[in-house]
């Protein structure tokens, strides 16, 4: 009995260390995490500083169709999370470019940066210009949907198709009554990011209470970034980015889009920035993608809506075959 007690005590002492060891530790630019395709770097100057953007540039696997797809990741995602979509599009003949935006993943984490969707669109445009790409099909997921919208508004002549996958920003949260968080408040929140916190949030908000083991690799990717030696820089840039997302809605400009647009919506998604501090009556009405998708499609001239019944925030990860079949059909130019 005494031996059992000693063993139990030893295990209880060791558990915190074991739990901490279970979360990887990656560098400030996600050093240590393996990307599915060769990672390249685009060096440029922005806001009086030298920055680098990580990106993947994947050639068509087979007969090229002459088109280039640019994949824009979400806030809690990276270019790497597009791995299945990259493979699918490449096999369909597309050249696929998947950048990590400044402040995210494998890209620079500047100490000071005035984040705006316009700036990120400019950065992406500069990357494409450096690669000699003058026409693209944009596929933006989550926050990447807000960025893809801004890019299409700024560069309609360069955009042959706009695809938004469960984009956030289909409503103006501050106008709906969500309280404002300062950058400092966001920073303190982001310093506390953990793998378990990410998992719980995504399971509840993204996947309607469901979870698949394959999602854990992406949880660990993000948690490892916040758990590494550059965690202060990661958290600070994350705070600045959240402020950009909350204060710079593209919602009011959807009617101004002049490019063919496809909305792909998992209708069980309930993502809404600031819902965790919103009053109960506000929290109840925001983030309702089953309705937001329909409302947004009506506001975008000529938009097509594809709904994935029963799926959540990332249909490309929940049911890849179903999603990619719809994506390939939706990318066709008419």
Report what the structure shows.
The chain has 334 residues and is an alpha/beta fold. The protein has a single domain, classed as 3-Layer(aba) Sandwich (Rossmann fold), CATH 3.40.50.1820. 42% of the residues lie in helices and 15% in strands. It contains 13 helices and eight strands. The protein has helices at residues 2-22, 83-91, 117-130, 143-154, 173-176, 183-190, 195-206, 216-226, 231-247, 280-285, 289-299, 315-318, 320-330; strands at residues 40-46, 49-58, 68-72, 95-99, 136-141, 159-165, 261-266, 304-308. Strands 1-2-4-3-5-6-7-8 form an eight-stranded mixed sheet, sandwiched between helices. Strand 1 (40-46) and strand 2 (49-58) form a beta hairpin. Helix 6 (183-190) crosses helix 9 (231-247). The chain is globular and about 50 Å long. The model is unreliable at 1-21 (pLDDT under 50).
What's the SSE blueprint?
Blueprint (H helix, E strand, L loop, with lengths): L1 H21 L17 E7 L2 E10 L9 E5 L10 H9 L3 E5 L17 H14 L5 E6 L1 H12 L4 E7 L7 H4 L6 H8 L4 H12 L9 H11 L4 H17 L13 E6 L13 H6 L3 H11 L4 E5 L6 H4 L1 H11 L4
Parallel strand pairs: 3-4, 3-5, 5-6, 6-7, 7-8
Antiparallel strand pairs: 1-2, 2-4
Helix pairs in contact: 3-4, 6-9, 7-8
